[in-house]
Design a protein that fits this description.
By secondary structure, the chain is an alpha+beta fold. It folds into three domains: about 180 residues, no CATH class; about 180 residues, Sulfite Oxidase, Chain A, domain 2 (Alpha-Beta Complex); about 110 residues, Immunoglobulin-like. Helix content is about 30%, strand content about 25%. It has eleven helices and 19 strands. The strands form four sheets. Strands 2-1-10-5-6 form a five-stranded mixed sheet. Strands 3, 4, 7, 8 and 9 form a five-stranded antiparallel sheet that branches. The radius of gyration is 28 Å and the shape is globular. Bound molecules: the ligand Nc1nc2c(c(=O)[nH]1)N[C@H]1C(S)=C(S)[C@@H](COP(=O)(O)O)O[C@H]1N2 and molybdenum atom. GO terms for molecular function: heme binding; molybdopterin cofactor binding; sulfite oxidase activity.
Length: about 525
């Protein structure tokens, strides 16, 4: 007899072998063959808006890692639970592994670009897992003629064999992960390529954009600091050679550009602040970069866009979609197919080799990374990924502001204090930032005009600072609000990110000593 505990452990080992072998084989077939990633992606596709918001706010960019670990954990728990009841006559655990493989295969086949061959690793992995489970549960491994002794020794040998399989499975998985990363990585290519020369340069960023004497974020966000938001479990690795941009739909001529074809177009450099609709009040899902690319307008022109079109549905290499008003892509704001970010080829996480960047719109309706397809269409005919998940069809950026200094709960000494933060209202631009301080008596003070860093353009944020005398010890609250260049004051009404961006004033509490 094999105990239920030993069987459960056998189930964990079998599941690990199944996952490990599948991942190792998938490393040689390519990313679309990875069932683990495909299941994770399928979960992301079906995540309702509030859960996504919660995950982003709780885990930030680590949300993908958390999901990935969660998928493995669920598989292992189910394996352990079901195999406890595995017998020769009722192969419950084996059936569960087979069922998991069916789900894995379905997820693999549902991904863009998947072929029937992509299910091979999952099927073979599940086969190995079931074989290991049957072997361990039958007790044959420990019932060899030379090993006829009974009791604890037999149990010990069984757990050693089980742990051996567990280790081998985990090792295959780790090896597969490393090999897959190495084989697919475009890091080497990216390091070797050059950006095209700049035809239309952005005006230089004057030092006056940055207020002095206060530790604010830099006006230009470094590539390493730039926030990252996307649904990609593994960062797509798309080489310039494999990249294509197909333009089709409501056009007179379909065109598919290769990367080298872009050389025929004018390169334009623009400083643009990118903002995420999921940014909560006070959040940091915003950053500014100098983007280099080609005007989307220029790329669309030879296709002959039909007059009835009002939207462009862009698709990334991993099947994510974005719906952008056609107007925003062709008007004089110069929406870009960007290939460079702050003087470097786009970092892989930010869309290498090419992405869209459109001034004035939240990223989910404009900033498709790893973009490979533009379908010229209409809002009443096509829906993009986040629009299907509860977000608005259109996402103009709302006038917002944030306090960076002091930090919530910070203590400051009596005397002169410099407060500061950022304000944004792309593409209108920020005209004023106003700050109100509430003292220990709970009485809100006057709205004070903050000093603003120089305005670069309506498409970029503005940094603000305020010199203030701290006189009364005790708890204070500082609140900020922005006024945009249309004269509109940032609304106090609080709203969450869903469906079209958070609103409300950002406040921070601090103590004067
Ligand atoms: N392919 C792809 N592009 C995408 C997304 C995505 O999930 N997949 N997310 C969008 C969202 S919601 C935002 S806010 C921006 C973020 O761009 P960043 O990661 O370069 O900051 O990318 C946009 N482009
Ligand atoms: Mo976003």
């Amino acid at each position: 007899m094999i105990t239920r505990g030993a069987k459960a452990l056998a189930g964990i080992a079998a599941a690990t072998v199944a996952l490990g072998v599948a991942r190792l084989l998938a490393a040689f077939l390519g990313p679309t063959a990875d069932a683990h990633a495909a299941v994770g992606a399928a979960v992301i596709d079906r995540t309702p808006a509030p859960v996504r918001e919660w995950a982003i706010q709780t885990f930030g960019t680590a949300d993908k890692l958390v999901l990935s670990v969660l998928v493995v954990a669920v598989v292992v728990v189910i394996a352990a639970a079901t195999t406890g009841w595995e017998t020769r006559r009722f192969p419950i655990g084996s059936t569960a592994i087979a069922g998991g493989a069916v789900i894995g295969c379905a997820a693999v086949l549902s991904r863009t670009g998947a072929t029937a061959a992509d299910v091979v690793p999952t099927v073979v992995g599940a086969g190995c897992g079931i074989a290991v489970l049957r072997l361990l549960v039958s007790g044959r491994v420990v019932d060899a003629p030379a090993a006829r002794d009974d009791g604890p020794d037999r149990g010990r040998r069984l757990s050693l064999v089980t742990l051996g399989f567990l280790g081998a499975g985990a090792l295959s998985g780790a090896l597969g992960t490393v090999i897959a990363r190495r084989r697919a990585s475009v890091a080497g290519e990216r390091a070797a390529v050059a950006l095209p020369p700049v035809d239309v340069a952005a005006p230089p960023v004057p030092p006056e954009v940055q207020p002095k004497g206060v530790a604010l974020p830099s006006f230009i966000t470094g590539n390493g600091e730039f926030y990252r938001i996307d649904t990609a479990l593994a960062v797509p690795q798309l080489s310039r050679d494999d990249w294509r941009l197909r333009i089709h739909g409501l056009v007179d001529r379909e065109i598919t550009y290769r990367f080298d074809d872009l050389d025929a177009f004018t390169t334009v450099e623009k400083v643009i602040t990118l903002t995420c609709v999921s940014n909560p009040v006070g959040g940091d899902l915003i950053g500014t970069a100098t983007w280099l690319g080609y005007r989307v307008r220029d790329l669309l022109a030879p296709c002959g866009v039909r007059p009835e079109a009002d939207m462009v549905l862009s698709t990334s290499v991993d099947g994510f979609t974005v719906g952008t008003p056609l107007e925003a892509l062709v008007d004089d704001r110069d929406a870009l197919l960007a290939v460079g970010m702050n003087g470097q080829p786009l970092p892989t996480e930010h869309g290498y080799p090419a992405r869209l960047v459109v001034p004035g719109l939240y990223g989910y309706v404009s900033a498709t990374k790893w973009v490979v397809d533009l379908e010229v269409t209409r809002f009443d005919r096509a829906r993009a990924f986040w629009t299907r998940h509860g977000w608005s069809e259109r996402g103009p950026i709302k006038t917002q502001s944030r306090i960076d200094v002091p930090r919530d709960g910070q203590q400051v000494e009596r005397g002169p204090v410099v407060l500061g933060g950022v304000a944004w209202a792309q593409p209108r631009g920020v005209r004023e930032a106003q700050v109100r301080i509430t003292g220990p008596d709970g009485q809100p003070g006057e709205w004070l005009p903050a000093a603003l860093g120089a305005s670069y353009s309506g498409d970029t944020w503005r940094l603000w600072s305020l010199r203030w005398q701290a006189t009364r010890p005790g708890r204070h609250t500082v609140t900020v609000r922005a006024v945009d260049n249309d004269g509109v004051v940032q609304t106090e009404a609080q709203a969450g990110p869903v469906p079209d961006g958070a609103t409300g004033w950002h406040s921070v509490a601090f103590t004067v000593r």
